[in-house]
């Protein structure tokens, strides 16, 4: 385990035990001496607060026994833990590396469009695929080639194509076109139609119906 992983595990233990106790402190009987030494190191970084004499006296009264050592997270410690639990992962987890997932590398403008798409999940009639928002949140960036790396299922890739299609319909087609060229996944409304039915753009169809002699005026109701 790397040093930052050990630090996060200690912060997590302090957070969980402090919350369980109700007063926020982790007491001397709840951590092994080796872990207490790690806590002391985190205290020097401002991530942990050690109980002073007055705090220990109050805790001793609550516990009904002498409390000689106690620690709790500082605000910086809480934020470090929250960020560490949600930080972008440089490597895929075993589940993400499964055979049903594909590595997808997106340019910054594609990633920006995808963030808008997953951010609108609560407002869309066709929401992002399950797990796509988490993939976007934890994606890592290869700054050398300026690409965002995600590991997506086929369903998630089709959802990305839909998000980029929305981006295309409201401004720029470059992102959807590039995704189609590189991964062979393209969304179009015609895919939702019955097989064999022609795909008709909604705007041109409406214009045809309104034109003289169009189907919209061929008869009376």
Topology:
Elements: H1 3-21, E1 26-27, H2 33-44, E2 48-50, H3 53-63, E3 70-73, H4 75-86, E4 102-106, H5 108-119, H6 132-138, E5 140-142, E6 147-152, H7 154-169, H8 174-183, H9 202-210
Antiparallel strand pairs: 1-3, 2-3, 4-6, 5-6
Explain what you see.
The protein is mainly alpha-helical. Helix content is 49%, strand content 10%. The chain contains nine helices and six strands; from the N terminus they run αβαβαβαβααββααα. It has helices at 3-21, 33-44, 53-63, 75-86, 108-119, 132-138, 154-169, 174-183, 202-210, and strands spanning 26-27, 48-50, 70-73, 102-106, 140-142, 147-152. Strands 1-3-2 form a three-stranded antiparallel β-sheet. The chain has a three-stranded antiparallel β-sheet with strand order 4-6-5. Strand 5 (140-142) and strand 6 (147-152) form a beta hairpin. Helix 5 (108-119) packs across helix 7. The chain is elongated, with a radius of gyration of 28 Å. 24% of the residues are buried.
